[in-house]
Amino acid sequence: MTEVIIVKNQDEAGSIYAQRVARLIESKPDCVLGLATGSSPLAAYRQLSALVKNDSIDVSQVRGFALDEYAGLDPKHPQSYQSTINRTVVEPLGLDPEKIHVPNGNLSTISEAGHAYDQAIEDAGGVDIQILGIGTDGHIGFNEPGSSLASGTRIKTLTEQTRIDNARFFDDDINQVPTHCITQGIGTILKARHLILLAFGSGKAEAIAETVEGGISSFCPASALQLHRHATVIVDEAAASRLRNKDYYKYSFEHKPAWQGI
Ligand code: F6R
What GO molecular functions are on record for this protein (predicted)? Predict the structure, then answer.
């Protein structure tokens, strides 16, 4: 079963993620983190960087792979996912930028870039913990509704809804939001050993209910998490508000032995 943890706020969610990742880095210093952009993981990255500093955790060997990148956007553009990952993850955590990878959205090489990216993840031994956000339409990475649940990293067309949602990062101007992206596929994401999906706010409530309690369908790409052996969904009350089994998730988490972790 996908484990659902209902928290008070983003900081509490971030702290659960940070403790899990800190334990991983201590036991496997060259672990591979799967990284996401967007607003949902920001508190988690903040908490992790605070923990890394307070506990003097050595992150010099940590490797990472981001989920996605806009197609045709200069990597130096402040809203490229390359810049975003540098700003929100690499710099605050003090990671080695050489060890952190983002899909290459350069249009001249994009048709081969997906396969090369999947190969690079495999060569690194696979992703240990993948953090995920979710779109209001149920997308993970940029796998929009209808994406194959077996897909590898490839080019996708963004839906208009995703471009509307992301216009806030582009001066509220949808015309500045690229129409295409390169994204890890759902099949790629499912290969990570542990998936941690974070969602906050009532805008995500329907997507979360579909993900956890709906049928597995490419029309809610995140519902593929139900196929994964170790998936954790961390949500606030608002994002949990449409879950039918909410009381059971709370009961399970409250009675979970501390040694079990997530
Ligand atoms: C970002 C990504 C997207 C976002 C999703 C939610 O790398 O892959 O799937 O996680 O669009 O975005 P936020 O967190 O901004 O609501």
Answer: glucosamine-6-phosphate deaminase activity; identical protein binding
